[in-house]
Amino acid sequence: MDKEQLLGLATGWRLPEDEKGLELYLGALERYSASSTREEFVDFILEIRDRGKRGTVDYIFAVYPAVRSFLNRFGETPGRLLVGFMEASNAGEEEDETRFITRLMELTPDDRTVNLLFVLHSRKPPTSDMKRVDWELEQLSKIENAYPSDPIVGEVRKRLTETKRPIGDRSNEDLWNKIFGLVWKEYERNLPKLLLG
Average of pLDDT values for 101-124? Predict the structure, then answer.
């Protein structure tokens, strides 16, 4: 099976109406995963993501399974784990998000992007006696110490200090969106390199 045939099987069905289309696609994806080269699979992922963003394929059931299949076949590197996290987030796969961000924190605890995502993703501070906003400020201080020229971290710390409300609070939704938006732009720009690395 080549890339174009697989893309054809990923197109034209929607759940829950067409479970047969999903079954055919997932079976073909499994065969493609086993036989394609890493570069061929990266090309497929880039194309199917593009189609998913345009709405011509189902993002949750076509794009994310391809990413997960790629990671299973070619292994987990920090870059691929970041791809897994971002795509799991986009697909609403919270358990996978948690697994990927936990693994990223183990492998790259000093990475700016990983730490920003950890703050955004973590549902509660590690200790119950710590207020959420205090925990976030502590995490942001660590990032700021490691990356003193990062303007977004300073802006976020200033706002949290003033409002005493966590990033996830409705009043700070613009901050959450700004941080995730910046990370997403970096991610989009570096996606092929992250997958190949």
Answer: 91
Q: Count the domains in the chain.
A: 2
Q: Domain range holding 16? A: 1-75
SS3 108: coil
Rounded-to-integer distance, Cα 165 and Cα 109, Å:
25
Query: Crossing angle for the helix pair 132-146 and 112-121, nearest 10 degrees?
Result: 170
73 and 41 in contact (C-beta within 8 Å)? yes
b/e 128-153 (16+ beta carbons within 10 angstroms → b): eeeebbebbbebbeebbeebeebebb
Reported as a single tens digit per residue, the pLDDT across 71-88 is 999 999 999 999 999 999
Per the domain annotation, does 164 fall within a domain? Answer: yes
Rounded to whole angstroms, the Cα distance separating 163 from 133 reads 10
- Say what the pTM is: 0.90
Q: Report the candidate in 118, 128, 69, 68 with the shortest Cα–Cα distance to residue 98.
A: 118
